[in-house]
Specification:
The chain is α+β, with helices and mostly antiparallel strands. It folds into 3 domains: about 50-225 and about 490-530, no CATH class; about 320-485, no CATH class; about 540-660, Roll (SH3 type barrels), CATH 2.30.30. The longest helix is centred in the middle third of the chain and has 21 residues, at about 390-410.
């Protein structure tokens, strides 16, 4: 009896794409595997994950102390073994890794920088008051991967463990973090001493690396390192005459901040350890508060083996996206701004209607409906604005443009005009922060920009809350100076979706069930590294042979005898941009111009884009289409796709971060 596809996958849900891929794989194989049960799938998965390497198995475990006096087993993917196995079995990843190793050779005196990222992943029902399925997850990668760090597959999973399990451990998350950090320097597989990672053409390649960056959001960092935050005086409770050595929490002069060194950090923890048994519990708790640290004997800061390889005073990095975009400074200020605009008779509905006039580029057009609705009036007040980080990142330049137009066309009360000027400075911070991973952003420029914004905020909103995130933002410039880049959570949020894909269907949340999640994540990552490139190649998407007429036109334009083999597509990806499509208006670097994409084509390995150059008008950022102004440009010369607003025959370009 022929298989009825309309009934397939009804008893147990599977997506249409997933079902199609399974059927295609079976058709290509020509036969079914010997076993088709859940147990057979599990055995196959376990066999694949059990691959042996010179550094042992890829899946290992830590034995951690729990609060009940016993031990808890937590599984993890060994960094050395997983890196070796990924390089040996994934050809595309091997080519990428070898190329980076050639461009940035490592040695015991010039080690690569390992980045460790931690975040909590919440699968299942987000509205449940208690969610026992939450996972504390660690990812890691190398700073030398550069712009490829914006690709989620450039990050390897280290471990994922239930938050409920972490809460049962002595000292909680900081004990897990200690073992995560130590996993990079185990006997016989130490990154610091060098790992033999042979590649094609470089059989003797030895990689030397060390943990240099720990990045997470503010809550995670608190639990990873068990510190209590900045030791400042809240302005609300400050005495009339403040001791000169102390600063208010609203201080924006970072020259007055006294930063810990590794020695002062260890001295503070040693002092706590010496006095723990000498005073009452209440007095000791106050002592911890005054020093700014919790004494965790099983934690990172009390482990000499960790501190000899990683200095938390230099390696800790704040997640700028969490500071500004995840219930952060941007959302807080937008709510304050909306209140002042409302008093000036500029309502949220007016801003929402203005948003509908803008055209979004293809790479975010799939989310365009939600982005255009971020300012849709809710049933609550104008001061209850919320959005995701991705929506905020796309919406902030549009809001800046709308406010600029309102300010130009309307005489506003002083308080509304001041609020808009403050928001403009806020946007400058976001423009710079988006470029801190791939572009050469000066730390002094970032420091000056953030300070100017915070000073303006304090002047415009003197009676409003100065969030701890605002203080954290003042440390970003120093971290940029230390590491040359800033890492954000935006990439890892996409990585979380992969973990949630498996965790959402795992109903069993008992301790130890994370092992199967690690197996699924590792096998899925291996498949991605075999199939995808991490270096953002310039290539067509869904290419097809060019028509004879297009081949003739192409050959005539370039003075060729023929253009046989020419392929074309309406979609392509170039460095930093995953999708550039027909109709997108883009900013070009060579020539310096604004243009509309007609199509992309590839000839003899060269990716070209046919564009219509737009004529600049006398009004800033205003352009107009012209006739017979088509040309071909190198696709790699595209700096980025623009958000636009059309007014008759004119096209207004919204200023964005890549145009700086």
């Amino acid at each position: 009896m022929p298989l009825d596809l309309s009934k397939l996958g009804r008893k147990s849900f599977v997506s249409q794409q997933g079902l199609a891929e399974v059927l295609q794989a079976v058709a290509e194989a020509g036969e079914l595997p010997p076993g088709t049960s859940r147990s057979a799938v599990k055995r196959s998965r376990q066999k694949a994950i059990a691959a042996d390497t010179p550094f042992g198995s890829t899946l290992k475990h830590w034995t951690l102390k729990n609060v009940h006096g016993g031990e808890t087993t937590v599984h993890y993917l060994d960094p050395a073994a997983c890196l070796w196995y990924s390089v040996q079995t994934c050809q595309l990843f091997q080519e990428f890794f070898a190329q980076v190793a050639i461009q940035k050779p490592s040695s015991p005196t010039n080690r690569w920088s390992i980045i460790l990222y931690e975040d909590e992943v919440a699968p299942g029902n987000q509205l449940k008051p208690t969610n026992s399925r939450r996972l504390q997850t660690f990812y890691w990668s190398f700073k030398e991967f550069g712009s490829s760090l914006t690709n989620e597959d450039a990050w390897l999973v280290l471990s994922t463990v239930r938050t409920s399990t972490v809460n049962e451990l002595v000292d909680g998350l900081t004990q897990v973090a200690k073992h995560a950090m130590l996993s990079f320097n185990q006997l016989g597989r130490s990154f610091m001493h060098g790992l033999h990672i042979p590649c094609r053409g470089r059989p003797s390649l030895v990689l030397c690396a060390e943990l240099q960056i720990l990045v997470a959001d503010e809550s995670a960092l608190k639990h990873l390192l068990e510190f209590k935050g900045a030791n400042t005086i809240n302005a609300r409770y400050a005495p009339a005459e403040l001791d000169p050595s102390m600063v208010l929490h609203t201080c924006t002069d970072d020259a007055r901040f006294k930063l810990h060194s590794l020695n002062s950090l260890q001295a503070a923890l040693a002092y706590l350890a010496e006095n723990e048994d000498q005073v009452t519990q209440q007095a000791f708790a106050k002592m911890q508060t005054n020093l700014g640290f919790n004494l965790c004997k099983e934690g990172v800061l009390r482990c000499n083996d960790v501190l000899t390889q990683f200095d938390p005073t230099r390696g800790t990095m704040f997640d700028w996206a969490h500071i500004f975009l995840v219930s952060g400074l941007w959302h807080f200020e937008v709510n304050l701004l909306l209140v002042r605009l409302s008093r000036a008779n500029v309502k949220q509905q007016q801003i929402h209607e203005a948003f509908q006039e803008y055209h979004l580029p293809s790479f975010i057009a799939g989310k365009g409906c939600d982005i255009k609705k971020v300012f849709q009036k809710k049933k609550t007040s104008d001061a209850d604005f919320k959005s995701s980080a991705t929506e905020a990142l796309a919406a902030y330049p549009i809001l800046r443009d709308i406010l600029h137009n309102i300010r130009q066309a309307t005489v506003l009360p002083a308080e509304a005009a001041e609020a808009i000027s403050c928001y403009m400075l806020h946007c400058k911070c976001l423009d710079l922060l988006q470029r801190t991973l791939c572009d050469n952003v000066g730390h002094d420029e970032l420091r000056t920009t953030i300070k100017a914004y915070l000073d303006r905020y304090l002047a415009v909103y003197p009676d409003e809350t100065f969030l701890p995130k605002a203080h954290m933002s003042m440390h970003l410039a120093g971290q940029l100076r230390q590491h040359g880049c800033l890492i954000s959570c935006l990439t890892h949020e996409r990585r979380h979706k992969e973990l949630k894909r498996y965790a959402n269907v795992q109903c069993n949340s008992r301790q130890g069930t994370e092992k199967s999640l690690l197996q699924e994540m590792q096998l899925t990552h291996m498949e991605a590294l075999e199939r995808l490139r991490l270096d953002f190649p310039n290539q067509l998407q869904l290419p097809r042979p060019a028509s004879p007429s297009l081949q003739r036109a192409f050959a005539a334009y370039f003075g060729l005898f023929s253009a046989e083999g020419l392929t074309m597509s309406g979609k392509a990806e170039v460095t930093k941009w995953r999708l550039l499509a027909t109709g997108d208006v883009v900013l070009l670097a060579d020539p310096v111009a604004v243009a509309e994409i007609l199509y992309h084509c590839c000839f003899e390995g060269r990716l070209l884009t046919c564009v219509t150059l737009l004529d600049a008008c006398s009004t800033p950022n205003m352009f107009r289409k012209s006739q017979d102004n088509c040309t071909f440009v190198q696709a790699s010369s595209i700096r980025g796709p623009c958000i636009t607003r059309k007014t008759g025959e004119f096209i207004h370009i919204v200023p964005q971060h890549f145009a700086a």
